[in-house]
């Protein structure tokens, strides 16, 4: 019994996807963004199922995935009697707003599915805020297939960029926004996303968000901000709230006036500075009451901003978002949002698995857990299909293969899923000079017709 308790259930991912991604959810999402829809072989639900299966199975190409779906070789892919040309036309014609709405509705259903278990050491501060989220942007991978209109472009062409909103306590992507213009301003897109947050939300950001305009927008939507100081933002000290030794250094808490008032109204903020020798940590926050967010808590909270960088790594490296199957921005957006759906379901499964075996969910490595979750989903649907075929041939018999769930493939021992701690110094990332020369597809002559409808 104790041995069974140290094993992780691998069927939770497919259970979440099957329970929440339904035709009713797809229909409600489509009615939210459009009114009418012509009947097609590739229905809305089938399209979402297909892209979700692409994330789970990571085929070599979309043509291979379509052939597997047509020949019924893959139980994860929907059975569609249509040509590959019909699928690609469907991806070109359907705007990304539908997939974005499906992602938002699916994420909303998972918000209250499990309690916040990630970053448990910060749990005493969760009741003071409606949520603690992290903002950051990232660009998607380059277009590998060179279209004819790109032959004369020497730079690397990017089909779009992302803006992520990571929920620190629940450990999932609360918001994922795709923009077909890879050169679009991250700060401008982030300010537009603030309206989607609940009042009382604490927003973490890097130096890019250290502007008076961003703090003004956060305050206008009833939230608070905590960012790293950017010295381009001028500060005028008003009052020193506290000064004391802390962690071998000196911790100061000031009330300051930030901004010149030219481009945006000047903001009253708290300036938190910790110094020890040549090491310095400087933060700005709009939480003016030290009882709501103390200076030591702010210093301990800000390093968790790196969690969103880990989220982007999992999306790109673990869920194969570094490889784009199509170059059209609409198809790229579909793959991005499908990866977001699978990522959130995986994080819920990871949270429940950690609670089941009695360890923090961060101790389970997504790079080890996700392949086993995907393989278990494939095996589960394959046996489900076999049982249905057997039942059609023998309608009076009930094998109950899946109800017993005694297969070893349905569980995995905790020992093979643990995170391997880094030993020694961190390896330096290789730098590619070609990364300097990139260009957005929206800025390529002829490429605007693909992006202006996004």
Question: Characteristics of this structure?
Answer:
38% helix, alpha+beta, 15 helices, 454 residues, Transposase Inhibitor Protein From Tn5, Chain A, domain 1
Could you describe the 3D structure shown?
By secondary structure, the chain is α+β, with helices and mostly antiparallel strands. It has one domain: Transposase Inhibitor Protein From Tn5, Chain A, domain 1, CATH 3.90.350. The protein has 15 helices and 13 strands. Helix 2 (12-20) crosses helix 12 and helix 6 (84-93) packs across helix 12. The longest helix is centred in the C-terminal third of the chain and has 29 residues, at 329-357. The radius of gyration is 24 Å and the shape is globular. The termini are far apart. The model has no long low-confidence stretch (mean pLDDT 87).
Short structural description:
The protein is an alpha+beta fold. The chain has helices spanning about 1-5, 10-20, 25-35, 45-55, 60-70, 85-95, 95-110, 185-195, 210-220, 295-300, 305-320, 330-355, 365-395, 400-405, 450; strands spanning about 5-10, 130-140, 155-160, 160-165, 170-180, 200-205, 225-230, 235-245, 250-260, 265-275, 280-285, 410-415, 440. The N and C termini lie far apart (about 55 Å).
* Name of the CATH first level: Alpha Beta
Indicate the mean pLDDT: 87
What characteristic shape results from the CA principal axes? globular
Number of strands: 13
Low-confidence stretches: none
Number of helices: 15
Structural class: alpha+beta
> Cα distance, first to last residue?
54 Å
CATH architecture: Alpha-Beta Complex
Using only C-alpha atoms, the radius of gyration works out to 24 Å
User: What percentage of the residues does DSSP assign to strands (E)?
Assistant: 15-25%
Order of helices and strands: HEHHHHHHEEEEHEHEEEEEHHHHHEEH
- Report the helical percentage: 25-40%
Task: Give the strand order of the largest sheet, numbering strands 1, 2, ... along the chain.
Answer: 5-4-2-6-7-11-10-9-8
Q: What is the fold-level CATH name, i.e. the topology?
A: Transposase Inhibitor Protein From Tn5, Chain A, domain 1
């Amino acid at each position: 019994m104790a041995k069974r308790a140290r094993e992780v259930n691998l069927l939770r991912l497919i259970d979440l996807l099957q329970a929440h991604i339904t035709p009713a959810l797809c229909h409600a999402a489509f009615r939210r963004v459009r009114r009418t829809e012509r009947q097609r072989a590739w229905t809305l639900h089938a399209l979402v199922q297909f892209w979700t299966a692409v994330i789970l199975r990571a085929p070599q190409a979309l043509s291979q995935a379509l052939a597997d779906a047509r020949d019924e070789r893959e139980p994860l892919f929907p059975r569609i009697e249509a040509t590959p040309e019909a699928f690609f036309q469907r991806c070109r014609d359907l705007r990304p707003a539908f997939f974005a709405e499906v992602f938002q509705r699916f994420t909303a259903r998972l918000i209250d599915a499990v309690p916040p278990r990630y970053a448990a050491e910060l749990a005493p501060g969760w009741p003071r805020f409606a949520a603690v989220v992290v903002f950051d942007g990232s660009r998607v991978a380059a277009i590998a297939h060179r279209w004819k209109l790109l032959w004369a472009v020497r730079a690397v062409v990017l089909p779009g960029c992302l803006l992520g909103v990571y929920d620190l306590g629940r450990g999932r992507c609360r918001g994922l926004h795709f923009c077909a213009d890879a050169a679009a301003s991250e700060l401008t897109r982030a300010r537009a996303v603030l309206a989607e947050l609940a009042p009382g939300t604490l927003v973490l950001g890097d130096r890019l968000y250290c502007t008076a305009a961003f703090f003004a927008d956060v305050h206008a939507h009833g939230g608070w901000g905590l960012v790293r100081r950017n010295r381009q933002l001028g500060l005028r000290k008003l009052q020193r709230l506290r000064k004391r030794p802390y962690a071998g250094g000196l911790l100061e808490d000031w009330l300051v006036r930030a901004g010149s008032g030219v481009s945006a109204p000047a903001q009253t903020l708290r300036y938190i500075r910790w110094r020890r020798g040549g090491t310095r940590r400087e933060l700005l926050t709009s939480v003016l009451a030290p009882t709501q967010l103390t200076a030591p808590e702010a210093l301990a909270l800000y390093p968790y901003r790196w969690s969103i960088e880990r989220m982007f790594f999992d999306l790109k490296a673990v869920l194969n978002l570094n490889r784009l199957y199509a170059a059209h921005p609409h198809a790229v957006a579909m793959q991005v949002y499908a990866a977001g759906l699978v990522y959130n379901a995986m994080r819920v499964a990871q949270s429940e698995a950690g609670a089941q075996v009695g360890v923090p969910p961060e101790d389970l490595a997504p790079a080890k857990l996700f392949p086993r979750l995907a393989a278990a989903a494939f095996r589960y649907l394959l046996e489900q299909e076999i049982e249905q075929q057997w039942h059609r041939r023998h309608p009076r018999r009930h094998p109950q293969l899946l109800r017993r769930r005694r297969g070893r493939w349905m569980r995995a021992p905790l020992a093979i899923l643990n995170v391997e701690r880094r030993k020694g110094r961190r390896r330096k990332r290789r730098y590619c000079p070609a990364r300097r020369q990139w260009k957005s597809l929206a800025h390529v002559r002829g490429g605007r017709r693909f992006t202006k409808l996004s």
